[in-house]
Write a structure and sequence with these properties.
Elements lengths: L4 E5 L9 E7 L2 E7 L20 H11 L22 H12 L4 H16 L4 H4 L10 H24 L4 E2 L4 H7 L7 H20 L9 E4 L3 E4 H27 L1
Parallel strand pairs: 4-5
Antiparallel strand pairs: 1-2, 2-3, 5-6
Helix pairs in contact: 2-8, 3-7, 3-8, 5-7, 5-8
């Protein structure tokens, strides 16, 4: 099936306060109103001021159009293709791209402090408010970072103790639901994250050069060394800090 080309136009009086999306698939043009405005609209070629859609927004497009006859699940943009169902390789490249050219240990050391400054003096109720029904709140993002740090702690120690070991994947959505992350105290979750991160950084700084090359076999991503895991975590941090900044920006509008 041909992938539909998408364009998203921002809110205006002309389009009744919605965001207008049109796309073409199978030679037929179909139209539908999108009830919410995306923070970053999909660009139109030749139109200044429009920027590329991000992955979170393509998830929203899929939610709106999923199951509709003749529509593919892969969303494309005129200037940059981005599959809705991000592959493992695409995920790796995106996350590593955030940390490219940066010192991963320095990035990780600053993450908790950055989040602390971002959420300072913001009521817990706002931090628990989701920007959309299917998107995590700031509290849930912080709790997820805590979960990810727990997983990383175990994975690195397992690899160091038994190089070449198998590393299982985990379902972050199921963890979040099972732990009731939506109702967590954001400050308490951030405190746990800070403590876990400090312990992991102490471990990493103590490693011998050869230990950075020790690796495990991830169930989805294949071979991952301690060095690669450290880079991935730095990129993962940046990704979620950007999300937090975007949510706060949307709340201030």
């Amino acid at each position: 099936m041909e992938k539909p080309a998408c364009r998203l136009f921002p809110k205006s009086a002309a389009n009744r306060g919605g965001a207008y999306l049109f796309f073409r698939t199978g030679g037929n043009r179909r139209r539908r109103w999108v009830r919410r405005q995306f923070d970053t609209p999909i660009c139109r070629l030749g139109d200044p001021g429009f920027t590329n859609v991000n992955f979170c927004q393509t998830r929203e497009l899929d939610r709106i159009f999923s199951g509709r006859k003749g529509i593919s699940g892969d969303w494309t943009c005129p200037t940059r293709s981005r599959a809705m169902n991000e592959t493992i390789e695409q995920y790796k490249q995106r996350i590593q791209g955030y940390a490219a050219g940066k010192d991963p240990l320095k990035v990780q050391a600053k993450t908790a402090e950055k989040i602390e400054k971002l959420i300072k003096r913001i009521p817990s109720a706002k931090l628990r408010k989701r920007p959309a029904p299917d998107k995590w709140s700031i509290t849930e993002i912080i709790a997820h970072l805590e979960d990810a740090e727990i997983v990383t702690s175990y994975r690195m120690r397992r690899i160091l103790g038994a190089p070449g070991t198998a590393i299982e994947a985990y379902d972050q959505e199921k963890w979040a639901e099972a732990e009731n992350n939506a109702k967590r105290d954001p400050q308490a979750a951030l405190g746990v994250f800070k403590a876990l991160r400090a312990a992991n950084l102490t471990l990493l700084k103590s490693l011998k050069p050869e230990q950075w090359k020790h690796f495990g076999m991830h169930a989805e991503r294949g071979e991952e060394s301690i060095e690669r895991i450290t880079q991935m975590i730095a990129g993962h941090d940046i990704n979620h800090v950007i999300q937090i900044e975007a949510i706060l920006g949307g709340q201030r509008k």
